[in-house]
Amino acid sequence: MALKRTARVKLTIPDDRRDDLKRTMLTFREVAQQFVDRGWERNEDGYVITARSHLQSLVYKQIREDTGLHSDLCIGAVNLAADSLRSAVERMKAGKRAGKPTFTAPTMTYNTNAVSYFTDGDESGYCTLAAYGGRVRAEFVYPPDEDCPQRQYLSGDGWEAKGATLHYDRDGGDYYLHVTVERDEPETELGEAENGTVLGVDLGVENIAVTSTGTFYSGGLFNHRRDEYERIRGSLQQTGTESAHRTIDQIGNRERRWNNDVLHRISKALVQEAITHDCSHIAFEDLTDIRDRMLGAKKFHSWAFRQLYEYVEYKAAEFGIRTKQVDPAYTSQRCSKCGTTLRENRTSQAEFCCQKCGYEVHADYNAAKNVATKLLRSEQKSPSGGATNQLALKSGTLNGNGEFTPASP
Ligand SMILES: [Zn+2]
Protein backbone atom coordinates (compact mmCIF):
# COMPACT_ATOMS: atom_id res chain seq x y z
CA MET A 1 0.00 0.00 0.00
CA ALA A 2 1.29 3.41 -0.89
CA LEU A 3 0.97 5.78 2.02
CA LYS A 4 -0.07 9.18 0.69
CA ARG A 5 0.41 12.59 2.22
CA THR A 6 0.05 16.14 1.05
CA ALA A 7 2.89 18.53 1.74
CA ARG A 8 1.73 22.11 1.59
CA VAL A 9 4.52 24.61 1.09
CA LYS A 10 4.65 28.32 0.36
CA LEU A 11 6.59 29.40 -2.71
CA THR A 12 8.68 32.42 -3.54
CA ILE A 13 8.03 33.41 -7.13
CA PRO A 14 10.55 35.77 -8.77
CA ASP A 15 8.90 39.12 -9.44
CA ASP A 16 9.65 39.01 -13.17
CA ARG A 17 7.84 35.66 -13.53
CA ARG A 18 4.65 36.39 -11.60
CA ASP A 19 2.80 37.55 -14.71
CA ASP A 20 3.78 34.40 -16.61
CA LEU A 21 2.56 32.18 -13.81
CA LYS A 22 -0.66 34.13 -13.42
CA ARG A 23 -1.39 33.95 -17.14
CA THR A 24 -0.67 30.21 -17.14
CA MET A 25 -3.06 29.65 -14.24
CA LEU A 26 -5.85 31.66 -15.84
CA THR A 27 -5.42 29.82 -19.13
CA PHE A 28 -5.37 26.48 -17.33
CA ARG A 29 -8.72 27.28 -15.77
CA GLU A 30 -10.22 28.38 -19.09
CA VAL A 31 -8.93 25.24 -20.78
CA ALA A 32 -10.36 22.97 -18.06
CA GLN A 33 -13.66 24.79 -18.56
CA GLN A 34 -13.56 24.24 -22.31
CA PHE A 35 -13.11 20.51 -21.76
CA VAL A 36 -16.03 20.51 -19.34
CA ASP A 37 -18.18 22.47 -21.79
CA ARG A 38 -17.47 19.92 -24.51
CA GLY A 39 -18.18 16.99 -22.20
CA TRP A 40 -21.40 18.60 -21.03
CA GLU A 41 -22.58 18.98 -24.64
CA ARG A 42 -22.82 15.18 -24.51
CA ASN A 43 -22.03 12.55 -27.08
CA GLU A 44 -24.31 11.36 -29.88
CA ASP A 45 -26.15 9.06 -27.43
CA GLY A 46 -27.01 11.97 -25.15
CA TYR A 47 -24.60 11.03 -22.35
CA VAL A 48 -22.24 13.44 -20.66
CA ILE A 49 -18.71 12.57 -21.74
CA THR A 50 -16.68 11.67 -18.68
CA ALA A 51 -13.85 9.63 -20.16
CA ARG A 52 -10.60 11.55 -20.21
CA SER A 53 -9.39 9.90 -23.41
CA HIS A 54 -12.64 10.69 -25.19
CA LEU A 55 -12.56 14.36 -24.18
CA GLN A 56 -8.94 14.57 -25.17
CA SER A 57 -9.54 13.11 -28.61
CA LEU A 58 -12.32 15.62 -29.28
CA VAL A 59 -10.82 18.99 -28.44
CA TYR A 60 -7.29 18.66 -27.09
CA LYS A 61 -5.53 19.47 -30.35
CA GLN A 62 -7.61 22.54 -31.03
CA ILE A 63 -7.22 23.85 -27.50
CA ARG A 64 -3.47 23.33 -27.58
CA GLU A 65 -3.23 25.24 -30.85
CA ASP A 66 -5.41 28.08 -29.59
CA THR A 67 -3.75 28.55 -26.22
CA GLY A 68 -0.22 27.20 -26.56
CA LEU A 69 -0.58 25.88 -23.00
CA HIS A 70 2.12 23.40 -21.96
CA SER A 71 1.00 19.93 -23.06
CA ASP A 72 1.25 18.45 -19.56
CA LEU A 73 -0.83 21.25 -18.10
CA CYS A 74 -3.35 20.62 -20.86
CA ILE A 75 -3.44 16.98 -19.76
CA GLY A 76 -3.93 18.14 -16.18
CA ALA A 77 -6.86 20.25 -17.32
CA VAL A 78 -8.45 17.29 -19.12
CA ASN A 79 -8.09 15.16 -15.99
CA LEU A 80 -9.62 17.85 -13.82
CA ALA A 81 -12.50 18.27 -16.27
CA ALA A 82 -13.11 14.51 -16.48
CA ASP A 83 -13.09 14.15 -12.69
CA SER A 84 -15.58 16.95 -12.18
CA LEU A 85 -17.85 15.66 -14.96
CA ARG A 86 -17.76 12.20 -13.43
CA SER A 87 -18.77 13.46 -10.01
CA ALA A 88 -21.57 15.53 -11.56
CA VAL A 89 -22.87 12.40 -13.31
CA GLU A 90 -22.63 10.42 -10.07
CA ARG A 91 -24.74 13.03 -8.34
CA MET A 92 -27.32 12.84 -11.12
CA LYS A 93 -27.38 9.06 -10.90
CA ALA A 94 -28.03 9.37 -7.17
CA GLY A 95 -31.04 11.55 -8.00
CA LYS A 96 -29.40 14.74 -6.78
CA ARG A 97 -29.23 18.08 -8.47
CA ALA A 98 -26.10 18.62 -10.54
CA GLY A 99 -25.30 21.49 -12.84
CA LYS A 100 -22.44 21.85 -15.26
CA PRO A 101 -19.18 22.10 -13.29
CA THR A 102 -17.49 25.48 -13.38
CA PHE A 103 -14.00 26.38 -12.25
CA THR A 104 -13.52 29.51 -10.23
CA ALA A 105 -10.74 28.62 -7.78
CA PRO A 106 -7.27 29.90 -8.63
CA THR A 107 -5.56 26.52 -8.83
CA MET A 108 -3.68 24.50 -11.42
CA THR A 109 -2.70 20.85 -11.57
CA TYR A 110 0.90 19.79 -12.21
CA ASN A 111 1.67 16.20 -13.14
CA THR A 112 5.17 14.86 -12.67
CA ASN A 113 6.22 16.04 -16.12
CA ALA A 114 5.20 19.62 -15.44
CA VAL A 115 6.94 20.01 -12.08
CA SER A 116 10.41 19.03 -10.86
CA TYR A 117 11.60 19.05 -7.27
CA PHE A 118 15.08 19.87 -6.06
CA THR A 119 15.26 19.06 -2.39
CA ASP A 120 18.65 17.63 -1.54
CA GLY A 121 19.57 17.45 2.08
CA ASP A 122 18.32 19.81 4.76
CA GLU A 123 18.78 22.95 2.68
CA SER A 124 15.52 24.55 1.70
CA GLY A 125 14.56 23.19 -1.67
CA TYR A 126 12.89 24.55 -4.75
CA CYS A 127 10.82 23.39 -7.66
CA THR A 128 10.45 24.34 -11.28
CA LEU A 129 6.98 24.75 -12.71
CA ALA A 130 5.95 24.65 -16.36
CA ALA A 131 4.56 28.04 -17.43
CA TYR A 132 4.39 30.43 -20.32
CA GLY A 133 7.85 31.80 -20.97
CA GLY A 134 9.57 28.63 -19.71
CA ARG A 135 9.92 26.97 -16.34
CA VAL A 136 9.51 29.14 -13.27
CA ARG A 137 11.94 28.43 -10.46
CA ALA A 138 10.18 28.77 -7.10
CA GLU A 139 11.90 28.44 -3.72
CA PHE A 140 10.15 26.57 -0.91
CA VAL A 141 9.40 28.65 2.16
CA TYR A 142 9.22 26.27 5.13
CA PRO A 143 7.85 27.24 8.51
CA PRO A 144 10.69 27.95 10.98
CA ASP A 145 10.00 24.69 12.85
CA GLU A 146 12.90 22.29 12.14
CA ASP A 147 10.72 19.17 12.32
CA CYS A 148 7.85 20.52 10.26
CA PRO A 149 6.27 17.65 8.33
CA GLN A 150 6.46 19.58 5.04
CA ARG A 151 10.23 19.59 5.26
CA GLN A 152 10.29 15.86 6.01
CA TYR A 153 7.90 14.99 3.21
CA LEU A 154 9.81 17.06 0.66
CA SER A 155 13.34 16.30 1.77
CA GLY A 156 13.08 12.97 -0.01
CA ASP A 157 13.54 11.05 3.23
CA GLY A 158 11.64 7.92 2.24
CA TRP A 159 8.95 9.96 0.56
CA GLU A 160 8.61 10.31 -3.18
CA ALA A 161 7.13 13.55 -4.49
CA LYS A 162 4.50 13.01 -7.17
CA GLY A 163 2.19 15.54 -8.81
CA ALA A 164 1.09 18.76 -7.21
CA THR A 165 -1.55 21.44 -7.23
CA LEU A 166 -0.61 25.09 -7.32
CA HIS A 167 -2.87 27.41 -5.34
CA TYR A 168 -2.94 31.16 -5.42
CA ASP A 169 -4.05 32.81 -2.20
CA ARG A 170 -5.95 35.89 -3.28
CA ASP A 171 -5.85 37.46 0.17
CA GLY A 172 -2.14 37.24 0.78
CA GLY A 173 -1.06 37.27 -2.86
CA ASP A 174 1.07 34.16 -2.27
CA TYR A 175 1.42 30.90 -4.13
CA TYR A 176 1.27 27.56 -2.33
CA LEU A 177 2.19 24.18 -3.73
CA HIS A 178 0.31 21.12 -2.46
CA VAL A 179 2.59 18.23 -3.29
CA THR A 180 1.40 14.64 -3.16
CA VAL A 181 4.10 12.50 -1.59
CA GLU A 182 4.06 8.71 -1.34
CA ARG A 183 5.84 6.04 0.63
CA ASP A 184 5.50 2.31 0.18
CA GLU A 185 4.13 0.47 3.19
CA PRO A 186 3.91 -3.28 3.43
CA GLU A 187 0.27 -4.21 3.79
CA THR A 188 -1.61 -7.24 4.84
CA GLU A 189 -5.06 -8.03 3.56
CA LEU A 190 -7.31 -9.12 6.37
CA GLY A 191 -8.00 -12.39 4.58
CA GLU A 192 -4.30 -13.17 4.49
CA ALA A 193 -3.41 -11.93 7.93
CA GLU A 194 -2.16 -14.46 10.45
CA ASN A 195 -4.17 -12.84 13.17
CA GLY A 196 -6.28 -10.10 11.71
CA THR A 197 -8.16 -8.21 14.36
CA VAL A 198 -10.73 -5.54 13.62
CA LEU A 199 -11.69 -2.57 15.75
CA GLY A 200 -15.25 -1.54 14.88
CA VAL A 201 -16.34 2.09 15.20
CA ASP A 202 -19.94 3.30 15.28
CA LEU A 203 -20.54 6.99 14.61
CA GLY A 204 -23.38 9.03 15.98
CA VAL A 205 -24.75 12.32 17.24
CA GLU A 206 -25.12 11.48 20.94
CA ASN A 207 -21.86 9.59 20.91
CA ILE A 208 -19.58 10.80 18.19
CA ALA A 209 -17.79 7.43 18.21
CA VAL A 210 -18.24 4.13 20.05
CA THR A 211 -15.82 1.24 19.61
CA SER A 212 -16.31 -2.51 19.61
CA THR A 213 -14.02 -2.50 22.64
CA GLY A 214 -16.66 -0.52 24.51
CA THR A 215 -15.17 2.98 24.61
CA PHE A 216 -17.63 5.83 24.23
CA TYR A 217 -16.64 9.24 22.88
CA SER A 218 -19.46 11.56 23.77
CA GLY A 219 -20.73 14.06 21.24
CA GLY A 220 -22.28 16.13 24.00
CA LEU A 221 -19.63 18.79 24.24
CA PHE A 222 -19.57 19.09 20.46
CA ASN A 223 -23.30 19.45 20.15
CA HIS A 224 -23.50 21.91 23.02
CA ARG A 225 -20.79 24.16 21.60
CA ARG A 226 -22.29 23.83 18.16
CA ASP A 227 -25.70 25.06 19.35
CA GLU A 228 -24.09 27.88 21.28
CA TYR A 229 -22.12 28.93 18.20
CA GLU A 230 -25.19 28.83 15.97
CA ARG A 231 -27.06 30.98 18.48
CA ILE A 232 -24.33 33.64 18.61
CA ARG A 233 -23.93 33.59 14.85
CA GLY A 234 -27.66 34.00 14.38
CA SER A 235 -27.84 37.09 16.56
CA LEU A 236 -24.73 38.59 14.96
CA GLN A 237 -26.23 38.00 11.54
CA GLN A 238 -29.29 39.93 12.63
CA THR A 239 -27.08 42.81 13.66
CA GLY A 240 -25.77 42.75 10.10
CA THR A 241 -23.02 45.31 10.56
CA GLU A 242 -19.63 44.91 8.99
CA SER A 243 -17.98 44.36 12.33
CA ALA A 244 -20.61 41.75 13.18
CA HIS A 245 -19.64 39.84 10.03
CA ARG A 246 -15.99 40.10 10.94
CA THR A 247 -16.81 38.68 14.34
CA ILE A 248 -18.75 35.83 12.71
CA ASP A 249 -15.67 34.99 10.64
CA GLN A 250 -13.43 35.11 13.69
CA ILE A 251 -15.71 32.89 15.75
CA GLY A 252 -16.09 30.56 12.78
CA ASN A 253 -12.34 30.14 12.48
CA ARG A 254 -12.02 29.56 16.20
CA GLU A 255 -14.82 26.97 16.07
CA ARG A 256 -13.15 25.14 13.21
CA ARG A 257 -9.85 25.02 15.06
CA TRP A 258 -11.54 23.81 18.20
CA ASN A 259 -13.52 21.13 16.33
CA ASN A 260 -10.43 19.97 14.45
CA ASP A 261 -8.50 19.79 17.67
CA VAL A 262 -11.14 17.64 19.38
CA LEU A 263 -11.42 15.36 16.35
CA HIS A 264 -7.65 15.00 16.28
CA ARG A 265 -7.65 13.91 19.90
CA ILE A 266 -10.48 11.41 19.37
CA SER A 267 -8.74 9.97 16.32
CA LYS A 268 -5.52 9.60 18.29
CA ALA A 269 -7.38 7.76 21.03
CA LEU A 270 -9.09 5.48 18.50
CA VAL A 271 -5.79 4.55 16.88
CA GLN A 272 -4.23 4.02 20.31
CA GLU A 273 -7.09 1.68 21.13
CA ALA A 274 -6.47 -0.27 17.93
CA ILE A 275 -2.79 -0.55 18.86
CA THR A 276 -3.58 -1.65 22.42
CA HIS A 277 -5.85 -4.41 21.10
CA ASP A 278 -3.36 -5.46 18.44
CA CYS A 279 -5.77 -4.61 15.65
CA SER A 280 -4.77 -4.89 12.02
CA HIS A 281 -7.87 -3.04 10.82
CA ILE A 282 -10.26 -0.31 11.88
CA ALA A 283 -13.77 -0.48 10.42
CA PHE A 284 -16.17 2.44 10.00
CA GLU A 285 -19.56 2.43 8.39
CA ASP A 286 -19.69 3.89 4.88
CA LEU A 287 -19.81 7.67 5.20
CA THR A 288 -21.72 8.33 2.00
CA ASP A 289 -25.09 9.94 2.81
CA ILE A 290 -24.55 9.19 6.51
CA ARG A 291 -26.48 12.32 7.43
CA ASP A 292 -29.64 10.99 5.75
CA ARG A 293 -29.48 7.79 7.79
CA MET A 294 -28.89 9.39 11.13
CA LEU A 295 -31.53 10.95 13.30
CA GLY A 296 -30.64 14.50 14.32
CA ALA A 297 -27.48 14.66 12.23
CA LYS A 298 -26.62 18.04 10.79
CA LYS A 299 -24.30 19.08 8.03
CA PHE A 300 -21.73 19.59 10.75
CA HIS A 301 -21.85 15.90 11.64
CA SER A 302 -21.16 14.61 8.16
CA TRP A 303 -18.22 17.00 8.05
CA ALA A 304 -16.99 15.85 11.46
CA PHE A 305 -17.32 12.14 10.57
CA ARG A 306 -15.39 12.58 7.34
CA GLN A 307 -12.72 14.55 9.15
CA LEU A 308 -12.49 11.95 11.92
CA TYR A 309 -12.22 9.15 9.39
CA GLU A 310 -9.44 10.93 7.53
CA TYR A 311 -7.49 11.60 10.72
CA VAL A 312 -7.83 7.98 11.80
CA GLU A 313 -6.87 6.63 8.39
CA TYR A 314 -3.87 8.93 8.33
CA LYS A 315 -2.62 8.12 11.81
CA ALA A 316 -3.39 4.40 11.66
CA ALA A 317 -1.44 3.95 8.44
CA GLU A 318 1.75 4.98 10.24
CA PHE A 319 1.34 1.88 12.41
CA GLY A 320 0.47 -0.39 9.50
CA ILE A 321 -3.19 -0.44 10.53
CA ARG A 322 -5.68 -0.19 7.69
CA THR A 323 -8.89 1.78 7.90
CA LYS A 324 -11.91 0.73 5.88
CA GLN A 325 -15.57 1.55 5.39
CA VAL A 326 -18.29 -1.10 5.31
CA ASP A 327 -21.88 -1.20 4.13
CA PRO A 328 -23.93 0.15 7.04
CA ALA A 329 -27.10 -1.87 6.29
CA TYR A 330 -28.69 -3.39 9.43
CA THR A 331 -25.74 -2.65 11.72
CA SER A 332 -28.19 -1.02 14.14
CA GLN A 333 -30.80 -3.80 13.98
CA ARG A 334 -28.60 -6.88 14.09
CA CYS A 335 -27.85 -8.59 17.38
CA SER A 336 -24.08 -8.73 17.71
CA LYS A 337 -24.44 -11.77 19.95
CA CYS A 338 -26.72 -14.15 18.07
CA GLY A 339 -26.93 -12.49 14.66
CA THR A 340 -30.71 -12.04 14.58
CA THR A 341 -31.68 -8.96 12.58
CA LEU A 342 -34.97 -7.37 13.60
CA ARG A 343 -36.18 -3.78 13.53
CA GLU A 344 -37.71 -4.39 16.97
CA ASN A 345 -34.28 -5.18 18.43
CA ARG A 346 -33.56 -1.48 18.53
CA THR A 347 -35.85 -0.55 21.39
CA SER A 348 -34.84 3.12 21.62
CA GLN A 349 -32.15 5.51 20.42
CA ALA A 350 -29.70 4.22 23.01
CA GLU A 351 -31.02 0.77 23.84
CA PHE A 352 -30.71 -2.51 22.06
CA CYS A 353 -32.54 -5.60 23.21
CA CYS A 354 -32.47 -8.76 21.09
CA GLN A 355 -35.98 -10.16 20.72
CA LYS A 356 -34.56 -13.63 20.24
CA CYS A 357 -31.74 -14.14 22.72
CA GLY A 358 -32.51 -11.30 25.10
CA TYR A 359 -29.08 -9.66 24.78
CA GLU A 360 -29.37 -6.17 26.25
CA VAL A 361 -26.70 -3.65 25.43
CA HIS A 362 -26.09 -0.03 24.45
CA ALA A 363 -27.26 0.34 20.85
CA ASP A 364 -24.09 2.12 19.69
CA TYR A 365 -21.81 -0.49 21.21
CA ASN A 366 -23.86 -3.23 19.55
CA ALA A 367 -23.56 -1.40 16.21
CA ALA A 368 -19.79 -0.97 16.59
CA LYS A 369 -19.40 -4.75 16.95
CA ASN A 370 -21.56 -5.28 13.86
CA VAL A 371 -19.44 -2.86 11.86
CA ALA A 372 -16.35 -4.88 12.76
CA THR A 373 -18.11 -8.15 11.91
CA LYS A 374 -19.08 -6.75 8.51
CA LEU A 375 -15.49 -6.08 7.65
CA LEU A 376 -14.47 -9.55 8.83
CA ARG A 377 -17.14 -11.16 6.69
CA SER A 378 -16.51 -9.03 3.62
CA GLU A 379 -12.81 -9.80 3.68
CA GLN A 380 -13.17 -13.46 4.48
CA LYS A 381 -11.99 -15.56 1.58
CA SER A 382 -13.13 -18.94 2.82
CA PRO A 383 -14.99 -20.03 5.95
CA SER A 384 -11.90 -21.74 7.30
CA GLY A 385 -9.59 -18.90 6.35
CA GLY A 386 -11.68 -16.48 8.36
CA ALA A 387 -11.25 -18.41 11.57
CA THR A 388 -7.95 -16.69 12.27
CA ASN A 389 -9.50 -13.26 11.97
CA GLN A 390 -11.38 -11.66 14.77
CA LEU A 391 -12.93 -8.51 16.08
CA ALA A 392 -11.64 -6.68 19.10
CA LEU A 393 -14.05 -6.67 22.02
CA LYS A 394 -14.03 -5.24 25.54
CA SER A 395 -13.39 -8.60 27.09
CA GLY A 396 -11.77 -10.60 24.33
CA THR A 397 -12.07 -11.34 20.66
CA LEU A 398 -14.72 -12.89 18.46
CA ASN A 399 -13.84 -14.50 15.17
CA GLY A 400 -15.86 -14.56 11.96
CA ASN A 401 -17.35 -17.93 12.89
CA GLY A 402 -18.68 -16.59 16.17
CA GLU A 403 -16.10 -18.21 18.44
CA PHE A 404 -15.23 -16.06 21.43
CA THR A 405 -11.83 -15.90 23.09
CA PRO A 406 -11.54 -14.01 26.38
CA ALA A 407 -8.74 -11.47 26.68
CA SER A 408 -5.69 -12.76 28.48
CA PRO A 409 -5.43 -11.05 31.88
ZN1 LIG B 1 -29.59 -11.97 19.94
Automatic annotation (TrEMBL):
Biased composition range(s): Polar residues: 381-402
Keyword Repressor appears in the UniProt entry: no
InterPro entries: Cas12f1-like_TNB, RNA-guided_DNA_endo/Transpos, Transposase
One annotated GO biological process: transposition
Signal sequence, renumbered to the chain: none
Residues that span the membrane, as ranges: none
Region entry Disordered, spans: 379-409
Segments forming domain Probable transposase IS891/IS1136/IS1341: 186-290
Keywords: DNA recombination, DNA-binding, Transposition
Limits of the Cas12f1-like TNB domain: 305-371
A Gene Ontology molecular function term of the record: DNA binding
Keyword DNA-binding: yes
Record-stated family: In the N-terminal section; belongs to the transposase 2 family. In the C-terminal section; belongs to the transposase 35 family.
NCBIfam families: guided_TnpB (NF040570), IS200/IS605 family accessory protein TnpB-like domain (TIGR01766)
Record-given protein name: Transposase, IS605 OrfB family, central region
Species for this entry: Halovivax ruber (strain DSM 18193 / JCM 13892 / XH-70)
